Every structure is written in C-alpha cells, then in structure tokens.
Amino acid sequence: MADLRRPRLAVWKFASCDGCQLSVLDLEDDLLAIADRVEIANFREASSAVADGPYDLSLVEGSITTPEDARRIREVRAESRLLVTIGACATAGGIQALRNFADVEEFRRIVYARPEYIQTLTTSTPIREHVTVDLELRGCPISKAQLLELFNAVLFDRAPNLPGESVCIECKRRGNVCVLVARGTPCLGPVTQTGCGAICPAFHRGCYGCFGPQDTPNAASLSEALAALGMSPGELRRFYRTFNAGAPAFRAAADAIAEERPA
Amino acid sequence: MTERTIAVDYLARVEGEGALKVRLDGARVDAVELRIFEPPRFFEAFLRGRSYAEAPDVTARICGICPVAYQMSSCHAMERAIGLCVDNGVRALRRLLYCGEWIESHTLHIYLLHAPDFLGVPDAVHLAREQPEAVRRGLALKQVGNRLMTLLGGREIHPVNVRIGGFYRCPSRSELAAVRPEIVRAIDLAEETVRFAASLPFPPGEEDYEFVSLRHPEEYPMNEGEVVSSAGMRWPVDDFESAFEEVQVPHSNALHSVRRGGGSYLVGPLARYALNRDRLTPRARRLADEVGLEPVVRNPARAIVVRAIEVLLACEEALRLIDAYREPPAPFVAPPPGWRGGVGAAITEAPRGMLYHRYRVGPSGLIEEAKIVAPTSQNQKRIEDDVRHLVERSLALDDAHLTAACERAIRHHDPCISCATHFLRLDVERR
Question: Which residues in chain B have their CB less than 8 angstroms from residue A40's CB?
Fold first, then answer.
C-alpha cells in the first residue's frame, strides 16, 4: 500500500473552558492510535512542539469575544483545509454569550471602567459568524464518540455520521422512562440535538440543552407544555438561555416568551 | 551588561492562554509578568439573576479540567446559604466524585503535561515512543478517574448529576461495586506512578513558600475543613475574604491574591501535602517515605511526586468509600419551604488548590452576587516569585535555555489559566 501522508492536525483555543480540547486527550484508548495516523502539528495544550501551517484539519474551541480573536480566527481559517468547531462555545457562543442579553449600557459602563486593563467585545459570537466553518461538533462538552467519528471520517475521506435528531430518539433507544411525561420534570430533550447519550434523563433529570437545537425543533409547543408544568416565564427564558443561548432556535424560543406581569 | 528581555509568547502544556515576560537590567531582575490573556468570560456577571440551583452547572463551565471542583464549591456555598445538611451517603459520593477528578486531573498533568519536561521531549506522544509503558500506564490510570466521574456524574467533563443538596440520582451499592476491580488495579498503577515520578531527574532550587490549604480533623482535605497556613495561622472559611485580598494588576486579565499583612502564598498539592501529611493513608505515607519525599517539599519541580502521592491517596479513598457506601434515603435534600435567600461561602480543594465561592441569594432564589477565587489566581503572584528567583540564579544561561527554564518553572504548578480569568469580578469596577 502506498505510504499516505498523515493529515496534519491543529487545535485552537478561543474563549472557552478547555473542556472540548481535553476531550481529545480523554480519548485514552485511542489517543496513541490517533497520534500514529494523524500528525499533531499544533496543539499547545498538549505539546510545546508547534509546526507551521497549513493544516488539514483545524479543531476550533471557544467563541470570539475580543478584537484580537476576531482577527486571529481569520488567520486560522486561511491556514486550514477543514475547519471544524468543537463545542457549544465555538458553535453558538457558549455560556459567555449571556453577555449578549445583558443591559449593554450597564455592561459597557462596568467593563470599560478600566479600559486600559481589559480588552473585550460586548458580544460572544460563534466562529461561523466570522469565517466559513466546514463542520460543527455540538455539545458542552462535545461527545468523545462524535470526535472519534470525525477523526475516522477525515482519515477515510468520507462525511461523518452526525445525527441531527432530538435527544428523545436516543432516550427511547436507551430505554429511559420519559422524565417530562412520567415525572413532570422540565426537559429540553424534544428540542435538543442528540449526541450526549441522553444522560440527563438516565440520571432522572431533564435535558438542559447542552447540545443545542435539533434539526426541526418545535419550541413553541414545548414552551406551552413547560408553562403548563408551572414554569414561570423567567424560569422558562433561563431554561433556553444557557450554554447555547446564542443558537438561533433557542434564542428565538427565549425571545418568544412573554414578559412576566408584575404581581 | 545590557538590558535583556525573556519572553514566552504562548505557554504550552497549560490549560488556557498565558504568556511570560521577564525584564532584566544587568544582573537585576526588573520585572516578571505572568500575563494572562485568556479572554474574561464574566461568570460573576451572568450568575446574577440566575437561580441558586443553576450555580453548579454554570460555574462548572469555568473550567473543563476541574468542573467537579466548581460543582462542589458552589453546592457547599449554597447549602450554607440555605442551612442544608446532607446525608452521609451523599457526602461519601461527593468525596468519591472528587477522587475521580483528582485522579484524572493529576494523572493528566503528571504524564501528559509535566513528565515531558524532565525527559527532554515536547509532549506525551514523543514520550510514548521512548517509554510506551509509562504513557500507557498514565492513560489507564487517567481512565479510571474518568470512569468514576462517568459513573457518578454521567460524563467525565461537566458531569450532569450534581445538584444543590445532593445528586439527581444516587447509584446503588452494586453499581459502585462494579468498578471495584478497576480501583484495585488503579491503586497498583498509582504506586507505580509514584515510583516513576520519583525517578525523574529534578533540577535543584528550593523556594520559601507560605503554604495555604484546608485541613480537616480526620481526612486528607477535599470538601471540608478550615483554612490553615504554614505561617501558623488558621481561619474559618467565612474569614477567607478578610484574611486574603485580591489586587488588580495591569498586565493580566486575572487578579492576584495575597495574604493581608503577608505576601504571596501557594495553594495546591505542595501546600496540602505539607499541611496534611499526617492525614495521608498509611500506604501513601509509607511510599512517600520510601521514595524519599520529605515532610515538606519546597522544590516545585518535585510537585509531580506529590501529585502522584495524592493520586494514590485518591485511589485508596475511592476503594474505602465504595466498600463503606450505603445508599442515602433520598438522593437530595431540598431547601425548606419559605426559604428567603441568604449568604453562604465555601472552599473545597480543587486538584490545583483551594477554590472559594461566595453567593448572596435574594428572596426569590435568584443570585444577587457571586464571588469566585480560583486556585491559579491565588498562585499567580507566587509563580512570578518562583520565576524571578529562577532567573536570578540562572543568568548565565542563554536566552533560549533561560526561556525554556522559565516555562518549565510555571508548569511545575499546573496553572489553569481558564479558571484564573474569572476572577475579573464586576464588583471590582464599581468601587
């Protein structure tokens, strides 16, 4: 067999918790096998040896929150054949996108009280709002199984199999009792993309939406059901506004909830 | 001699984004700046107006390397605000979960981030070519830590099962017993790890640290205890903010912690070990003696051996907790009806050291104020002091070697820069 050139991997970090990068190192059983098949050219969290681009595959963690990072992501794009975002920060702006809903004037006043110390944008935005993204891995954090699927797909030059259906489908397959129907526990599973393994319902709690919206979410219907369980408008809005608050379908769902009437 | 600048533009093998700048004027070190350019994410801001119940899941996202630490500190702080007491079974499960995180995080640092420095290789992949059995051992041990977190928390990063007052679902005795053989094996791997770490070639250089950690009447500290210092002081957790203060510096997106009336101090494995060696398990203490680990370790390079001792302790503790486990009568306790908010603070021992949380919760259960002090923020000034001393005694080195030595000096402390950046609190600016 011909000695194929190993694809060159780079892993980049923007505003994030480092958890999705850690998922690469958490592929314990497969890590050394991957390192055999892929050249780890630039992965600062794991190696002090850094090779210049171009790179065949760039994994991008984190959202864009500073002017410098808005510039840097363009450089990353220019050096990357495939650019794949990993996790909710890179894909939807992450939990730090909650700043996008803050009182901007108040926020600005607070943030820029020491402008000489801190440089930050008033928004946290996903990578796709800045450059073309080839593929997105969802999750807070990403799933190791999906990460492995991505490596396999790149190595065999095929499209990865990443389902866009809801957590409910996976939850039924796992044999969980529905927490929403059977226990009246608020659950975002019906509108959230699968990939996590439906772990929250397996632990008797409702899904909190860390994989972001599924392909065809009916948030209006779910919001009605959740309100019927007794969730207040404030609680409901916060439910959609966590790690994927900036994802369009969740943003719209939160925006659609009527203001609480003063008591 | 002319002016000389040593710069590490981007620290490798640490969590988060940081850099180092050292300015020299002849033999005098003018300035040492550990720059943290990790963008601030303003957690203390978005926590305001969120439910008290959301704190564990939200603050876990400060750090993907030690999410359990954030979940534990936030739970304990909220429970103190509410006045909740948890069942002993819940207490045991929390310690078991923390053991999982200590094993995972320490083993990651020992084998994948720190050991390469002593063996002259850039990373664990290169290390695996020279010492495949060592890297395989490290990955297997790390996996046991992750296995515990997955069993108790649903997944290894940002576990989903932790809530204020306990867990969403507690495992049965038989579910825990299923991992027992892996833990038994992990204890042997941890012992081999201590011997591996102790055999590494260490550079000389002792530092005069003030160590600060929790201390508990019976246990090696994780979730509970009072704050003690090697300078002979002790404080209840509620006095943390009066005993220690944070100072904002222009070169960093992180605040520096110092002890009021003192100076920089060190938290983390070296501090815990120095202040709690008598709380180690007999086997861990015996092994520490056997590999020549003195009761107080002042050479930061040897923190890798102390981390290995703590991994052994965590594995042994995990086995003890699994064997003694009794499923609690209820997975969690809820706040009493009519709870109208309050203030609560707590400290737990993250793998990298003390993690302080304080919350003020309003009458409707929404957070009004949050304060979080991460281990790396507390160590930042002390790390700069280490680098300063290293440079002072290494002036003869050329720039490339001095730069590399500085970078290694920082890595000895396993700084987590993602964590460190949150301490840019909004209430600072309002003064």
Answer: 123, 125
